[in-house]
Design goal:
Layout (H helix, E strand, L loop, with lengths): L4 E5 L5 H11 L1 H7 L5 H4 L2 H10 L1 E7 L2 E10 L4 E9 L8 H16 L4 E7 L3 H9 L3 E7 L5 E8 L10
Parallel strand pairs: 4-5
Antiparallel strand pairs: 1-2, 2-3, 3-4, 5-7, 6-7
Length: about 170
Amino acid sequence: MGMSVIISTAAAQDAEEILKLQYLCFQSEAELYGNYRIDPLVESLDSLRAEIATGLVFVARLGDEVVGTVRGAVGEDGAGEIGRLGVHPRLQGHGLGARLLRAAEKGLADGRAATLFRLHTGHRSEGNLRLYRRAGYAPVGNETGNDGVLMILLEKDATQPVYVASA
């Protein structure tokens, strides 16, 4: 009998597992850019623990294992900032990233009154850009991240219909 993946709010005790998963998930991005100092790979455990305590952090679990994660926060301008979306490599391509993205959008709109969703991804990250375009995000500019990677900024009106992945 198979298990279902359950998405829930992260707890303090999830921090180490989230950080390990994040490190695994972002290896392909680091390789794509030839930069193993990208922000997700150098984040500290203390920083993540603080974000779990004060922010919006979701995890996807398959049984007891954390197999996906995403974070969100509302900025001073009312925009819901979504980041650090990651899915375990063995589960990619099955819609889990889209489910996590929807969970972050719902949490930011319902619980935090975001008026706009904003996220970013590296300019060479075609898979990420496809997911975000399907979810209704449009490019609005770019900027170079602290890690030197050119990032595409994308936004979506929070009142747009929620993206539903096709089976």
